[in-house]
Amino acid sequence: MRNDCMQRLLNWWKCVQTWMERWFPAMRLMREQMLPHNQAVLSELDTIHAEVREALEPEEQLEAINAISSLRHAWNNMVSELRLLVANRFGVFSSEASAGMRSRMVNIGYYSEEVPGYLQTLRTMVDSNRLGFIGPEALDVLDRHHRDWINASKQLITLLDNPGWRVDLVILTESIDPLLEKMRQRLSALDLELDKQSAQDITQLTKTARTLSFSILGIAFFGILLITFAYIFLNRTLLRPIAETAMALKQEAQGVLDITPPPASLQETANLVEAFNEMRKQVHMRQQHLDHMAHHDALTRLPNRVLFRDRLEHALKIAAREGRLIGLMFLDLDRFKQVNDSLGHLVGDELLKIVAERLRALTRESDTVARLSGDEFAVLVEGINERDDMIPLAEKMLEALEQPIEIAEHELRITVSVGIAMAPLDDVVADNLIRDADTAMYSAKQQGRAAYRFFTDEMTHVVAESLQLENEIRSAVENGEFLFHFQPVVSLRNGELYCCEALMRWQHSEKGLLAPEVFLDVLDDTGLITSIIDTLLDQASNHREKLSKKLGREIAVSVNLSARLMNDPAFCRGLLKRLVAREFPLGSLVLEITEDTLTRELAEANEFLQQVKNLGAKIALDDFGVGQASLSHLRQFPFDLVKIDRDFISNVHSDANDANLVRAIIQLAHAFGMQVVAEGVETEQQLAFVRAQGCDYIQGYLVGVPADSGQVVACLSAGQNGSLLAT
């Protein structure tokens, strides 16, 4: 039975193919000639690519893989243009098919000319034994399939230019259109015949109409009498109750509560009145539901900003009358956007629901917990006696929200920043009080998050200064005032320059050169860093080329990456293109990420960092020891370098714990096969200690301060050959 079904399906499919080939003659050429050549080329390229992967070292693979990828790209573009040519012939993209076909034919020719060039590149590699065991016969096969495919494409274009490229159009033009024309002529003749017959019928109808007119007059007289009696009856039993019901509906629409249903004598009107009463109940229920939706957040079921403001104004009036205080808490979840970006909005919504439940559990029934927008919540606390009454509640909220949250197999740990404003101590106007609490919350975020702050007048000035700083930074971005200074990193093995770390500076028009502590957080939080990073990378690349040319060997440059940059697709694509284009040769670019970034973004950044490593960049874990990274992260991702924070290096001679910690970090990194950079080395004693512990590189004022590219190049004379440290 199963074999019979399979045979029927095969027969049916053969019939379909036969029908399609008859309808579209070019189908056989595309299936039997062009498709096999295309599949053969792609299969051969896969074979060559696999052979290169197995036979060549990673450093030798890049040029070969680039040539193979370029050939595959040109071939796929050529095939895609032919598909678009066929689609244009069917009028998919434009009613003028010939214009689109000409454009695609030009593109096919362009890509077809690229293929022999890439084949010649591969032949050159074969001649120099740079393709492993791949011989010239494999490239001859590719060349033969390319020529055969091109010949078949020319035949296909010839078939598509032929008027009989679609059989259905030929049938329509030669058979159906003449038949339709004959039918139109026949219908015209019938129309003339009907006109003649209609003229004869009109005369007969006129006579009949005269007779009917007298009969209708009599019937109309009796009809008027009947209608008059019917109106009187219907008005009493039906129309008047309906009018009274309509009046009741208008009163209901106007909000009149005391409405007496109209009397009804007929069953139909009684049903209408009953339906009216039921409608009133449904309208009242839906009005209550709409009123609830208008004043409550749909996700958390908490009061929204409109209802919260209304309750705040009411509470302010009561507090003014009774002489009591009210407290307003403004809460904002820290780094909530990262939860949405990394785990999705569904997880973010569930997180907001749990936060709302925990806040409700901590407050009294007389208090109001509201969701104002996004991840912003507010709590209105009434009937308190002094400002300190708000402290226990704020501490409970911080503690409750720091507890782990399980959502969709993810364990989340969040914190919240809380701002507190008091009425009438801070203000007596609702909007101003909300603004003051928001300002206090912003101050809590600036001072490290996961904290609460009471509003003070000084905070207003701080917020104003922050806004002014952000505006100045935006202007500085537009004017190109940000640049890189470079600090040497020196090898302890031979004292030579290993690389230069690129450190961002702001050349302020009035305040001079400013350090990153002033502006980096604002650049990162506002996303402005993404608009200047390409220019800064150009500076780093130019500096690296100058140093390499000066010293006669490749010098690396290291650049710090923030979580914002690693989550920006445009930046990631641009950096990968630079590495593919060999703008940074193998091993000459070091990307530094901090422990906090690693903890929050490893799942998202892992793939990107692995890609740049495969293209020759090195990855450094910056400020190791002061963040939240764990040994599992070191094991999970193969870092090339570990940089010890300067705070530990500065105390190695005065603090035994710091000395032991530095010693342990160096041993741990070496155990994982990673090299170590000691940051902040400023004295000979610090140098002697890290050298004795087997540290690989040092960075600090002892070997060089951050300076612009010209100053760094000038201080490295050709006679020193990059040696900055006595070995």
From TrEMBL:
The lineage of its organism: Bacteria, Pseudomonadati, Pseudomonadota, Gammaproteobacteria, sulfur-oxidizing symbionts. The chain crosses the membrane at residues 212-234. This is GGDEF domain-containing protein. Residues 236-288 form the HAMP domain. Pfam families: EAL, GGDEF, HAMP. GO terms for molecular function: catalytic activity. Its cofactor is Mg(2+). Residues 466-720 form the EAL domain. InterPro entries: Biofilm_reg_signaling, EAL_dom, EAL_sf, GGDEF_dom, HAMP_dom, Nucleotide_cyclase, Rev_trsase/Diguanyl_cyclase. Residues 324-457 form the GGDEF domain. GO terms for biological process: signal transduction. One of its GO terms (cellular component) is membrane. Keywords: Membrane, Transmembrane, Transmembrane helix.
